[in-house]
Amino acid sequence: MTANRIPLSQLERGIPFEQRHIGPDGEAQAKMLAHIGYGSLDELTAAAVPDVIKSAEALDLPGARTEAEVLAELRQLADRNQVLTSMIGLGYYGTFTPPVILRNVMENPAWYTAYTPYQPEISQGRLEALLNFQTVVADLTGLPTSGASLLDEGTAAAEAMTLARRVGKVKGGVFVVDADVLPQTIAVIETRAEPLGIEVVVTDLSEGIPAEVAERGVFGVVLQYPGASGAVRDIKAVIDQAHELGAIVTVAADLLALTLLTSPGALGADIAVGTTQRFGVPMGFGGPHAGYMAVQDKHARSLPGRLVGVSVDADGNKAYRLALQTREQHIRREKATSNICTAQVLLAVMAGMYAVYHGPEGLRTIARRTHRYAAILAAGLTAGGVELVHGSYFDTLTARVPGKAAEVVAAARDRGVNLYLAGEDLVSVSCDETTTRADLEAVWAAFGVSADVEALDEVTPDALPAGLLRSDAYLTHPVFHQHRSETAMLRYLRKLADKDYALDRGMIPLGSCTMKLNATTEMEPVTWPEFGQLHPFAPVDQAEGYLTLIRELEERLCEVTGYDKVSIQPNAGSQGELAGLLAVRAYHRANGDEQRTVCLIPSSAHGTNAASAVMAGMKVVVVKTADDGEVDAADLRAKIEQYRDELAVLMITYPSTHGVFEEHVAEICGLVHEAGGQVYVDGANLNALVGLAKPGHFGGDVSHLNLHKTFCIPHGGGGPGVGPVGVRAHLAPYLPNHPLQPTAGPETGVGPISAAPWGSAGILPISWSYVRLMGGEGLKRATQVAVLGANYIAKRLEPHYPVLYTGPGNLVAHECIIDLRPLSKATGVSVDDIAKRLIDYGFHAPTMSFPVAGTLMIEPTESEDLVEIDRFCDAMIAIRAEIEKVASGEWPAGDNPLANAPHTAAALGGEWNHPYTRDEAVFPGGVSADEKYWPPVRRIDGAFGDRNLVCSCPPLDEYDA
């Protein structure tokens, strides 16, 4: 009997999480390895990864733990956070997430595992939800064109600054910021302005723009409405004054307040920005939340970020798509007006659905309740002899208590309430949707006064200025009136999700995007109140669990990358790029090398690289790409020599943007260092390196990482993302910091990159859990299987499509590019045709025409099993046979399954006049009826949508185009 004994310790651990995360099991891996001619994962990666970059030692990380153990460990961390009632305000408020939205959006993989809707035919649900969001923002701000979300309020205001400079009449001049703008917003604006040579003037605008400022020329103005202090004042006069000076005016507005107050558009604003956090999105210690921007129509085509528009499909039916400049950083590169690539789609969907569920009446009720609590709180304080700074307010009061402010804040904390210490003699108190009568009583007691809620309610008037009360209608579209019951809302959310394609349906083989498993265990803690309900400016001793988690994640990311320090503040990859480049710039300036402003970027690089470099005050110089996809070494040497004294940094992606392990990367890094420059290694392709090589060891000085790629934070339909920046020790003093939380970064830092001190802290438990669940060996095997999957696909498809680039051993890294250009030239079948035809086979298309036009870049990730990988390969091979029928003339060039793809169920009805059968249209290559994904629309006419721009919910009579 003892011979069959299995130790209890082994039985207790069960099936390792690694086997849940990695799709191909041992048998499947063996088959894949045999197909490409290798005996083991180690043998494959030894051949693929150049010796010069290989890590000699295993990752020094804690061993893998089970899912139950990791959840228990996270529970211990969560319990170390103190979640007091937050009345801090400053742009972050308590809110109730309707459970139907929490369960069916935030916790639903149909929504959180989807990709950015660049393939609109299979993204109609998300796009409709984003159109709802845009309508909410446009209606409440009184401005006709809203984007599909920005990263947060601070960065939205910074984007408004650069938009104002771009479209305004005043060339030169200063950017004026009202002193009552949120302090973190002011700091983010200043961080963004300095490298661009923009002078920011912060001044009190309550009496207008001071004459000494006006005479210098003003190209833009930012006002907060209501102000950070809580003051509600009529800002029309200062808006008019700014317009007389030729300035573009931005109003940072609270959307909940705008349900009661006159809109920025009605007051004359050109731009409105803000956050939608209080529309049902938890505070999450700072994020993620959907920022917003809305503009006058004349500025619509200059709007940064993404914009959802209404177009038509091939049958003339209404269809949604991303419109205009939504990938402008790829097209315009160093001439791009923004580096934003990741938005906050999942959070925008939640905020939009909050408005759909509550409707205008419900939102007004929540706003009135919030204001009523503030008015009663104010009445009690005033009756108790406390001086209030402002007589008109929405939800926030500022009290003057000479010499006692810190004492009041401490007394409130003892009663379970966090207030904001606004100055030596000032205390700020904010009410929100979650405020209770007990909270008012605790605040009164902290100030040393006593009052009765019921008695005050009977005699206390509202405190909103009569002249600013809103009278126009908003949210009049039927979608904001049809879903009041939970049943109706549930079905609406299900209907939209059914239109989309996400990872819960099948593989999304997008090169450079790493659409891997977002495990449920990793996702679960995000909604725990101990993580979700903490205010980002709460005292740090109330966030011990969070700060421990952040420190451990930063340390483990350092170990993975070989860097000495990591900051997790950047809340998108683009922001991590900017943070890294600002650190390089600050380092050179500290050394007296202010002339070092040239950033070398390969022509194949991701478009955000060039846009970020310009935002960091650098001059972009493009380095050629050789025929084999590697950086042209001769051109690089020439550029280094030409700009030797001005060279600041080389930005490269490794493995290369072409999915290849370049053999000369260490040599390239050495050349740049010898010339006095720094090396920025873009972390977009880190999924090919973890456990095998470390950028900080083979020559990188700085990298951003995409936690929404390599480290399992889901893409959420186009956001959230987290883009931490890792640096070697000499750059560490120049990482981001934050004026409201000194512990969030070095004193010598470049300033805040994001509005919150630790960025999108609310989703960091996902990546922490992934690293903890996998351990060092598991992370390495995940990388090896990702490389295996890409090479297996390349070998299977190579007889049918040319693989454009390979590296050592004729191998690729974690992705491969297949070249469709010869086929397109010979047959007229385009890369678009193949991408849309894949929908009929039940797949999301790979990355189209990046980094090379007319190609598909395929990345399977380690999470896809062999059945799914083979299903994809079989589909691509079947499509190649279909292309041959077009080439032979069996199917006409303009009327074949590829040209007409995708095919909807509706398209099958009525007369059928195509040279292929209905079955060939919708059940190709073995697609079974019981597993069929039916796209809701046919191919969408993008040009029509751009010519006829509609970016909010159209009236019902316009639905039939």
UniProtKB/TrEMBL annotation:
Q: Tell me the residues on which N6-(pyridoxal phosphate)lysine occurs.
A: K709
Keyword Glycoprotein belongs to the record: no
Please state the Enzyme Commission number of this protein.
Answer: 1.4.4.2
**What reaction is this protein's catalytic activity?**
N(6)-[(R)-lipoyl]-L-lysyl-[glycine-cleavage complex H protein] + glycine + H(+) = N(6)-[(R)-S(8)-aminomethyldihydrolipoyl]-L-lysyl-[glycine-cleavage complex H protein] + CO2
Taking every annotated instance into account, which residue ranges of this chain make up the domain Glycine dehydrogenase C-terminal? 782-903
The similarity comment for this entry is: Belongs to the GcvP family.
What does the protein in this record do? Answer: The glycine cleavage system catalyzes the degradation of glycine. The P protein binds the alpha-amino group of glycine through its pyridoxal phosphate cofactor; CO(2) is released and the remaining methylamine moiety is then transferred to the lipoamide cofactor of the H protein.
The protein's name:
Glycine dehydrogenase (decarboxylating)
- Organism listed in the record: Streptomyces antimicrobicus
